[in-house]
Amino acid sequence: MDNLKDVYVDQLQDLFSANKQAKGVTGELAKAADNDSLRKALERGVAGIDDGRQHLQKIITAHGADPRGEHCKGMEGLTREARAHALDASFGSAAARDAMIVTQYQRMAHYAIAGYGCALAFARQLGLDDDAKALQALLEAAYSGDRTMTELAESEINETAA
């Protein structure tokens, strides 16, 4: 990578890969969720992740790159952890599993927030205003998903699990 544009495209490809991996495990988490509000939020999360992938694909291809040019090992680890801790582990109650599902989803969301935030800063520095607008919307969507999980955890899931 020779310049910020190269770093930018590389990180967009990383996010594209991360979203692909996160979408799969988020769907699995939704199926495992007992709490109806949590399940619905995770299903919305799957749709949001898919929407993000579509936007990233457009941005990446507009820069003459292949969206599949990178494999995100960070998200690979996070999805492996989500499966191990929320899906494959034994729980004494469905509410305890739901609390773990929130935990694992938020870890993936925080990875997305960091990635989108960096890509947005790069786009702004490079004067890529249309990219920046799209990335700002994706960043806000990731923040919204994270806030939703916090609200669910604090208003019902953690209390039930306790």
How many separate structural domains?
Answer: 1
Q: Fill in the CATH topology.
A: Ferritin
Radius of gyration: 16 Å
Low-confidence stretches: none
Tell how many strands the DSSP assignment holds. 0
Portion in helices: over 70%
The CATH architecture: Up-down Bundle
Which structural class fits the helix and strand makeup?
mainly alpha
Order of helices and strands: HHHHH
Molecular structure report:
The chain has 162 residues and is mainly α. It has a single domain, classed as Ferritin, core subunit, four-helix bundle (Ferritin), CATH 1.20.1260. It is 84% helix and 0% strand. It contains 5 helices and no strands. α2 runs antiparallel to α5. The protein is elongated.
Annotate the secondary structure layout.
Elements: H1 4-32, H2 36-62, H3 73-87, H4 94-125, H5 129-161
Helix pairs in contact: 1-2, 1-3, 1-4, 2-5, 3-4, 4-5
Task: Give a summary of the structure in a few sentences.
With 162 residues, the chain is mainly alpha-helical. The protein contains 5 helices and no strands.
Describe the structure using short key phrases.
162 residues; mainly alpha; Ferritin; 84% helix; 0% strand
